[in-house]
Structure to design on (68 residues):
């Protein structure tokens, strides 16, 4: 039995007529718009209220070469 939320075979495409935009294209568009508006880069969260487990997780990510 087919899922009740699955479209019926031959059903109309709900995205028909919509323009698809890649994530990169959208990010570039947002960056250009922020620059046009003169929006500053906001500071990151200071992290003063982080739990010890969160601090340990972020430290492990950093030590593994990751950037959070």
């Amino acid at each position: 039995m087919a899922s009740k939320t699955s479209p019926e075979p031959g059903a109309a495409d709900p995205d028909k007529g919509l323009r698809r935009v890649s994530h990169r294209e959208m990010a570039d568009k947002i960056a250009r718009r922020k620059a046009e508006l003169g929006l500053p880069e906001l500071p990151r969260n200071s992290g003063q209220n982080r739990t010890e487990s969160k601090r340990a997780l972020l430290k492990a990510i950093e030590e593994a070469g990751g950037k959070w």
Notes: The chain has a mean pLDDT of 86.
